[in-house]
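Researcher: I'm preparing a figure for a lab meeting and need a structural model of a single chain. I don't have an experimental structure, so a prediction will have to do for now. The sequence is pasted below. Please return the structure as tokens so I can convert it later.
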Amino acid sequence: MISPMQQVVIAMRRRESEAVITALQHAGVVHLKPIEDSPLRSDASHEQTSEELKEAERLLARVESTIAELGAVRPAEMVGVTVPPRGDWAARIEGVASPVAELARERTEVQGDVDAAAAYAEPAATLARMVGSLDRSRRVSVIPFVLHAETDLGELQASLQEGLGDRFELAVENSGTGRVGAVATLAGERDLARTALGRVRLAEMRLPGRFEGMPLEQAAAELGQIRSAGRDHLQGLNAKRDALAKSHGPELFALRDGLKDLVAVHDVRTLSARGRYSLVMQGYVPVDRIPALEAALQPFGDGVVHELHGVDAHHDQAIPVELQNSEFVKPFEMVMGLMSPPKYGTFDPTWVMATLMPFMFGMIIGDIGYGLLFLAFGLWLNGKAKRGESWTVPLFGMELTPRVLSNLWQITKWMSIWTILWGFLTGEFFGTWGEHLGLFYLDEGILNNLWGWTGAEYHAHAGAHHHGLIPTLFPRLETGYFSNIMLVLALLFGILQVPWAWFIRIREGLKHGDQVHVWEGIALFGGVIALILMAFVTKAASDFGQMFNFANPLALLMWLGFLAFVVGYLRVIKHYPMLPVELVSQGGAVLSYARIFAVGLVSAIMAKLVADLGWNLYESWGIIGGIIGFILAALLTVLILAMTLIGHILQPIRLQMVEFLNPTGFNAETSPVYNPLRRLSSAQESVK
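Model: Understood. Here is the structure written out token by token.
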């Protein structure tokens, strides 16, 4: 549900504004709204405020760059971190930042040398042996180069002769990283030699960075030394950085929080109406947190005045939204976070997502074995969350915090429970392993007693398992008998949800006095129900004559639905002239729920094929075949899950977010997320 809000206006003396804003930060309940076009804009101390803000922002940037250079990680708990008075912040920050910046510069230089040594040490050593001290000569130029694997030495020789005649010497030798060569020619013909190399797609080898221009012997000696000792030097610098991060990291994070709080104070002033002696701010506060707001302002007595009044949900576009849901529903707010929050005063569908998304997922997978795998994965996530550990998702590189992992565990738990429960109904354990092992079986009498009322009739067939521990009650793999039942059950979600969505549209339109949305909702609510009833009355379009059988109450309701559509359409035809097309689209939205049946059946068939393959190998080759079959089935199961799992998760989410929520208007209007002014630093860290 959406928390009810109150609008608040707070007026204070200018000289107490920082203390009041700090108190509001500590309370953490007021969502600020900028005051625009206010006559209270004279600011006698604006220049001083700007200088303070610039200094705070400079120090904040310095702290953040220092934290980045250290690679420091914020401690899970900041308890016990002491921070000096505000007047000492600049000196403390600079005292850490300067040596850290120098260390970062040295690390960059050493890393560059290590990388250069890894790439050029061997070629440089080989070339140095080849040319000796010749590259120090003023009359002779030596041009080193690296040969490609496909370079033809004859073609190279011919190119050099074409440009230089006989005025050159060429040497080529193998090094540990490939072939290298050098051309020696007269100093004045250096460019001619380069051109000749270019004709055979070779270029002069230039050493990087500070090694460029060095004689090859000197460069080879330094690169060799770096190659042998550079990584140890770099590891020492990294150890020094880690030690600095461990000793100064917590204080730097605390200083950063304090500076962010200080910058926030100045930012709040820019959002407020300012006079020479006063400051006024406005915002929103949840009704249940008004006592916290009043407690924060109470110490200032008459120096602060605040006024609360109701919000105008019809016209105010800036009312923030905070969702308040039960412990069961709350984790699914993360799923709904994929979209913008609902508009204040409208429908919060998080509980629908929490109820139906795991249920539909379980219906699609419907396998005890898969459900146990999901449950084990969820327990692993929960273990990391309880230990306060994060998890970086492979391939995506996304880091999930312990709080996110805890929410994922709650979601995964319910998805697993429904998957296992549906697995008992479908009689599936990693496909048909449950049947092969005698856990599940098909009973003709039970199935016909349970589903015979639908007109379907099950007859035992060769190959079916008729003995076991648990009878299968929802045999979706019996496609010849059960497919239509499964399809209708899947469509039942759409038959209920799509009209319900348009009913919500009507209700919201009435609540907000929006007659256009009311009549649009009436038209499509009636039209969708009429289309659904038409499918039943005509027996899936097999007998359209039944539409005029007025002895059938369903036919009467169908025509009443079409009448509601016509009346509603005439009322909104100027706004929605294409509403008949939208009606057809909504009929398609109902049919879209068939994907629960289709995707689930495909998943079950693939699991059956894998299980049957493994079992057939066991029956054909005995124990050896069973071992091979088990390993092969396990590998194929992992492969199938990897390819299909994301789709199985997204299908129920898509049905709720598109087919259900679009008609409600959920995606058309939104409100900002409730983001109150909060203090990042603790009370101890905010010492002045």
